[in-house]
Amino acid sequence: MTDQTANGTVYIRSTLDSDGRAACLLTWGTITKLLTPEAALTTARELTAAAAAAESDVATIESFRATLKADMRTIGLMVLDIRKRRPMPKGRPALRIASVAGVRTGKPLVHIALGSMKGELDPDEARTMALHWTQTAVAAQIDVRLRYALGEWDKLTPTDIERLFAIVQRSDRGADRE
Question: Which of 50, 71, 117, 159 could bridge to 110 as Cys pair (CB 3.0-4.6 Å)?
Fold first, then answer.
């Protein structure tokens, strides 16, 4: 699965770790990272939550401006206080994720980062990325079970199984472009 940012394309796909367990391979620029499906799901939850928080922050700022006629310093302090009261995420996401309320633009944004790579998504792009990460985590868990089942079937060799998965992954990349 692929997602575009201004700073390059983020790729995530199902794979196996060195012990044959389900894993997700993240590639962004020069960075490659092997994730557990749980880490991919945690990241997906955080992307979705950040999208909602960014939209909520923008609505809050506009409401404080229009209804309360509050100055930007006061609004900024109130938004920071609201953010502190939000529940903390459980688990550790694979990306640094932050919701941003564009004060000058009035647009909600989600900032993502990993090592030296940084990107900016609108809330819908963040939700789409979250969907891709969720699909990949689920696919990784299914793939490991399917590999096991195919390995138990005496008609296919391990090489045949790897070829089959390579074909499926190539067809998946083609579907991303459609």
Answer: 50
